[in-house]
Amino acid sequence: MTERSDTPLHLLLVDDDDVLREACRRLLESEQLQVTATADPLHGLELAAQQPFPIALVDFRMPGMTGIEFIQRISLVSPHTAVILMTGYATIEMAVEAIKMGARDYIAKPFEPHALMEIIRRIAGELPIPSAAGEEKLSFEFNGKPVHIIGKSPAMQKVFGLVTKVASTDSTVLVQGESGTGKELIARAIHAFSHRAAFPFIAMDCGSLVESLFESELFGHIKGSFTGATATKHGAFELAEGGTFFFDEIGNISLNVQAKILRAIQEKEIRRVGASQSIKIDVRLIAATNLDLQTAVSQGSFREDLFYRLSVIPIHLPALRERKEDLPLLITAFLQKYNLRRRKTPLLSLTPEAEQALLQYHWPGNIRELENVLERAAVVEDSDRIELHSLPLHLQQPGKSARPSVQEELVSLQEMEKRYISQVLTSQNYNISQAARILGVDRKTLYQKIKKFDLKQI
User: Fold this and answer.
1) Beta bridge partners of 8
2) What homologous superfamily does CATH list for 10-126?
3) Which CATH architecture has domain 320-396?
4) Nearest Cα residue to 103 out of 61, 67, 140
5) If residue 349 lies in a helix (H) or strand (E), which one and from where to where?
């Protein structure tokens, strides 16, 4: 059995039973696995601190330390190690507690060799592949698919380091950055590297729901609690049980809902709309925003106590204009991605003029805008190189507005409305509340316009 990199999987085995430890070591080595074994849990922790072990087999009852305590301590020195707990005292309650504390799985003694190997093979196939320090991308698996976050710039290397450090904890994380910088990708990476990776990752866009529905979507409701509640509904918090809940653009929620979220965090319980009983929850919270929440706190639009609850570990994502050294890597990655969809000549490169235009542009829409520009170019370009004329007008002619004037192009009133709404949304980094205020409409009306005109965020 080998890892995905074709190197032998190296396991740590910790068990004070000499006979079982030796038998287990022989079994694993017969399966072409590399094993480091010890009877002392403290020695096991020292070994894990010296080199990374993808998987650790740990006895539940050992002198001086339980398996649960070992799980808690190894997460500090080797956060990516998946722990399989071995126990002769298996109960459902103990198994649930072990999983909650970070064990990837457990097996009851005595066990059949094939049962242990089945667990190891499954976990080996699920393990994320974190990037080493200094690498140009952070790689992991999410929902069975490989994901790569690209960045060799010092700012992104700092982000990568924070992600791998905080993933092993249950601390609340606040990801801040402009729209299009990849905040949800960072949240997914934290989840993928955590001991909660086998449990759900539930994301909620706080700007896409009207306030009257927010509480029901978040906490659920019971049948008959309001008009239209024809059945009991589980809220998003419940659906994330054991896993990670991601609040996207949390700065857009009202003070009333903020108070209820704060209570859920503090009490670790929720109450469905219309219910009299509370429900205990076990979720890890990650929030993201493109707003300056400290300014929002000072202006009275965001609760100070909730801000401090959410920002235990803040992560700032730099704008693309602040990490221009990453542009060539990102361009290459997107060209490779859209080459797979191209049925004509593969794209090999960009002309010097097109490349210069991309490097000089300030990218207000960040990575999302860059990807959309390259996807468009891959569609309209017929040759094997992206030419300058395949880029949007405002990239071809720096300083030229992306929105033509009426004198340059006569268009319908509806098209003018679409372009103006798009311009306002882009100028406000797709902050729906701010854009709605500028346009003089309510958020519901703006969402209807976005849907009508298919104004995808760039």
Assistant:
1) 2
2) Response regulator (3.40.50.2300)
3) Orthogonal Bundle (1.10)
4) 67
5) strand 349-350
**Residue position matching structure tokens 């929030």:** 287
Note whether 179 and 221 are within 8 A (CB).
Answer: no
Tokens for 397, please give them: 């002619």
What is the CATH T-level fold of the domain 413-453, as seen in this structure? Arc Repressor Mutant, subunit A (1.10.10)
Query: Strands 10-14, 34-38: parallel, antiparallel or unpaired by DSSP?
Result: parallel
204 vs 29: CA distance, rounded Å: 45
In the chain, where does the domain assigned CATH 1.10.8.60 lie? 320-396
Inter-helix orientation angle 352-360/327-339, to 10°:
120
Q: How far apart are CA 370 and CA 162, in angstroms?
A: 25
pTM for the model: 0.62
Instruction: Write the CATH number of the domain with boundaries 137-316.
Output: 3.40.50.300
**CATH 3.40.50.300 residue spans of the chain:** 137-316
228: left (phi over 0), alpha (psi -120 to 50) or beta: left
Question: Is residue 186 a contact partner of residue 315, using CB atoms and an 8 Å limit?
Answer: yes
Peptide bond before 200: cis, by omega within 30 degrees of 0? no
For CATH 3.40.50.2300, list the domain ranges present in the chain: 10-126
CA distance 20 to 326: 51
CB 272 within 8 A of CB 224: no
Where b means 16+ CB within 10 Å and e means fewer, 370-390 reads bbbbbeebbeebeeeebbbeb
Task: Say how far apart CA 220 and CA 238 lie, in whole Å.
Answer: 8
Q: Any residues with CB less than 8 A from the CB of 254 and at least 6 apart, and which?
A: 211, 214
3-state DSSP call for residue 317? coil
430: left (phi over 0), alpha (psi -120 to 50) or beta: left
Length of the chain: 458
**Through-space distance between the first and last CA atoms of the chain, rounded to whole angstroms:** 44
Residues 343-382 have pLDDT tens digits of 667 777 789 999 999 999 989 889 988 988 888 888 888 8
β-pair type (173-176, 284-289): parallel
Q: Are strands 220-221 and 385-386 parallel, antiparallel or unpaired?
A: unpaired
**How confident is the model over 183-235, as pLDDT tens digits?**
999 999 999 998 888 899 999 888 777 666 788 888 888 887 777 777 888 88
CA distance 124 to 405: 58
d(CA 198, CA 187): 15
* Local structure of 383: helix, strand or coil: coil
